[in-house]
Design brief:
The complex is a heterodimer of chains A (204) and B (465). Chain A is an alpha/beta fold. In chain A, 32% of the residues lie in helices and 17% in strands. The model of chain A has no long low-confidence stretch (mean pLDDT 95). In chain B, the strands form 5 sheets. Chain B has a 5-stranded parallel sheet with strand order 5-4-3-6-7. The chains are: A alpha/beta (204), B alpha/beta (465). The complex binds iron/sulfur cluster.
């Protein structure tokens, strides 16, 4: 995974609550066997018209939002199916940061695993960010993960919270499995104890 | 201070404490299906890693498979490739697979309990959000992403942060024609789709005790629709009776040992929950969703809400978008809505108990000729039992389609989909835009409401026929 230290990029806002993973990547695109190339299907049903052309009314298709890498969205972003294809699609499209008042649990885990930073903010701030993103000219935000700060051209807008472990993993781009394998012996110890305590779990 | 059931299971599975509120947890069982696993196995191969405990992983094919004409080659070649890839992965890594030829194949969350794989006190994961279903047995069960599937394959463990706990108490008893599905729809309507975020819900109360294991699974299944990480119900005599003599249940002296352990899996009387919600079950009528999230719900006897029923710009916008998508106007009577399709299936409501309820209602009646209605059993075993009991004959005589087991139109990854604009009463769990097919309009209901609606041709309750 690519480390996440600082990020600067332009902002796009989707003022809608409960954007679910079925919308982020519709199921007809879940049949690929690899993790790459999902970006072209991101928000497919909203982004494209029946005839396959771009839907000019969809926010991601507006000229000023081309190349946006920071997504500001309504509450409960990423709810629904556990499909990791959703963050794969967002990342492949170029999104590195998502800001909302809350994220669905599994989705937010999936983001961290793929080097996307989900930032939780208070409702008032979200409304401000929406307003900012709606200005005619495109807006840029800076995220400094070390300092846990979100800023714009005028300076720091807000600090944000992140679990220490998630932060470390993002900053260093660590591989979860490799990290977990340092506890290999402890896992074996656990298993040996469980074989004695709850032997029926080991009969299959 | 006492402990909640969730805390007890957590403590039993800590491999290593990482901080005050996170730990490396041991995973007792992982279930695998064809859609969210290929990249995980690929990751193992790329990094030259093995599966740590092949015997603690089980696989089946359910999401993208057809529910008729199931012999190879499939009409959908890409779905076939997924199925073949899973078969190869399972054989390469030594994982037991219930494939399309197995009489026990079916929806992953239906077959694991059927086989006795799901047991109280276990930690259970699957690359599927409705893994919460298994909490009905008093296990800690939750959905994960593909990276985590890979991690469990490689290490049989996962880093987890502690969830907050919410007690949902269903007091009183269900009235006639109301079911577990109505209880969970009612709850999600109250707490909202994000109300359970970061929580594990423990369902308690008289109505939960009175439910069958099947009904409890229906409730736990939709915990995720309220945003919860998992739902859990303490095991009791019904749970033990369900598990007795299943294929993978403990046998002989192990059964006795297991039983002793399982009986301790209850929340202590003096345990603290972070939040408590109480619902009077005796007042729950049949429910139905009108909008595009499971929290947009009303009574079947009720009306489509008006924008002005909501306060705040966000809520009003969400209502307007849902009305537009669903092709509805505020104030319309739910029962006036004409249907194009009825779908009875999914891991929420496709077990034998559900099919019996449907058969009771449709026996000797005919599906309204203006709509198409289909029943997709949750597993091959259920299909066989339903055929043996004569339920299938009742369905066929009434004009239902009767299919092979799979997810089918719950998510429309195969050819079972709604056409744009079609309105469907569905016993599944998600009514998101496009969930059952692009432009399709889904109303989530219980099997009883689905059955009555199929007969009437419009949304209906059992009293209408
Ligand atoms: S039946 Fe539906 S909800 Fe259940 S596992 Fe299949 S797709 Fe998911």
């Amino acid at each position: 995974m690519e480390p996440f230290i600082k990020h600067q990029g332009s902002v796009v806002a989707m003022e809608r609550v409960n954007i679910d993973t079925d919308q982020i990547i519709p199921k007809q695109f879940l049949k690929k066997l690899s993790k790459i190339g999902f970006g072209k299907y991101l928000f497919f049903d909203w982004r494209f018209l029946e005839d396959g052309g771009l839907n000019p009314d969809f926010i991601l298709n507006k000229p000023k939002h081309q190349g946006a890498s920071i997504l500001v969205a309504g509450d409960n972003f990423g709810c629904g199916s556990s499909r990791e294809h959703a963050p794969w699609a967002l990342l492949d499209y170029g999104i590195r940061v998502i800001i909302s008042t809350s994220f669905a649990d599994i989705f937010s885990n999936n983001c961290y695993k793929n080097g996307i930073l989900p930032i939780v903010v208070k409702e008032e701030l979200l409304e401000k960010l929406f307003a900012q993103a709606k200005r005619p000219a495109s807006v840029e935000f800076m995220i400094n993960l070390e300092q846990q700060s979100l800023s714009d051209a005028d300076g720091v807008i807000s600090k944000f919270n992140i679990e220490a472990r998630q932060k470390e993993f993002l900053l260093k781009g660590l591989d979860d499995i490799k990290w977990t394998l340092q506890f290999k012996d402890k896992i074996s110890t656990f298993e040996n104890r469980q074989k004695v305590d709850l032997p029926w779990l080991w009969l299959n | 201070m006492g402990k909640t059931l969730y805390q007890k299971i957590w403590e039993k599975h800590v491999v290593e404490e990482l901080s005050d509120d996170s730990a490396l947890l041991y995973i007792d069982l992982q279930m695998i299906h064809e859609v969210t696993s290929p990249q995980a196995f690929e990751g193992l191969r790329t990094n030259n890693r093995q599966v740590r405990c092949p015997n603690k992983n089980f696989a089946t094919m359910d999401h993208s498979i057809p529910t008729q004409n199931r012999h190879l080659p499939f009409a959908d070649r890409i779905a076939q490739l997924q199925v073949e890839t899973l078969a190869k992965n399972c054989s390469d890594f030594g994982i037991k697979l219930f494939d399309l030829n197995s009489p026990h194949q079916g929806i992953v969350h239906v077959i694991a309990p059927e086989q006795g794989l799901t047991q109280p006190g276990m930690t259970i994961v699957c690359g599927d959000s409705h893994t919460s279903t298994h909490g009905a047995f008093g296990s800690l069960a939750f959905g994960i992403g593909t990276s985590e599937v890979e991690q469990v394959l490689a290490t049989q463990s996962l880093v987890q942060s502690k969830a907050r706990t919410m007690k949902i108490e269903f007091t009183g008893s269900l009235k006639e024609h109301s079911y577990a599905k109505d209880m969970i729809l009612k709850l999600i309507g109250e707490i909202g789709t994000a109300g359970g975020t970061n929580y594990v819900l423990e369902y308690t109360g008289q109505a939960i005790r009175e439910l069958s294991i099947e009904g409890r699974m229906t409730i736990c299944n939709m915990s995720i629709e309220g945003g919860a990480r998992a739902g859990i119900i303490a095991p009791d005599e019904k749970t033990f009776a369900f598990l007795k003599s299943r294929r993978y249940s403990p046998q002989g002296s192990n059964w006795d040992k297991a039983l002793l352990h399982w009986k301790e899996l209850v929340t202590d009387k003096d345990a603290n929950f972070d939040k408590v919600v109480t619902i009077d079950t005796s007042r729950i009528s049949p429910h139905i969703t009108w909008g595009t999230t499971p929290s947009q719900v009303v009574e079947v006897d009720g009306y489509v809400p008006e924008i002005t029923d909501f306060s705040g710009r966000n809520q009003q916008d969400a209502c307007q978008k849902a009305l537009d998508y669903m092709g509805l106007k505020g104030g319309e009577k739910m029962k006036d809505l004409m249907l194009d399709r009825v779908f009875i299936g999914s891991c929420t409501n496709a077990r034998l108990e559900d099919l019996r309820i449907v058969a009771n209602i449709v026996k000797g009646r005919k599906v309204c000729p203006k709509l198409e209605a289909m029943i997709v059993p949750g597993s091959g075993s259920i299909k066989k039992m339903a055929e043996k009991e004569g339920l299938a004959d009742i369905f066929l005589a009434a004009g239902f389609e009767w299919r092979e087991a799979g997810c089918s139109m719950c998510l429309g990854m195969n050819e079972d989909i709604l056409q744009a604009g079609q309105r469907c009463a569905s016993t599944s769990n998600r009514n998101f835009e496009g969930r059952q097919g692009k432009g399709g309009r889904t109303h989530l209901v219980s099997p009883a409401v689905a059955a009555a609606s199929a007969i009437c041709g419009h949304i209906a309750s059992v009293n209408d026929i």
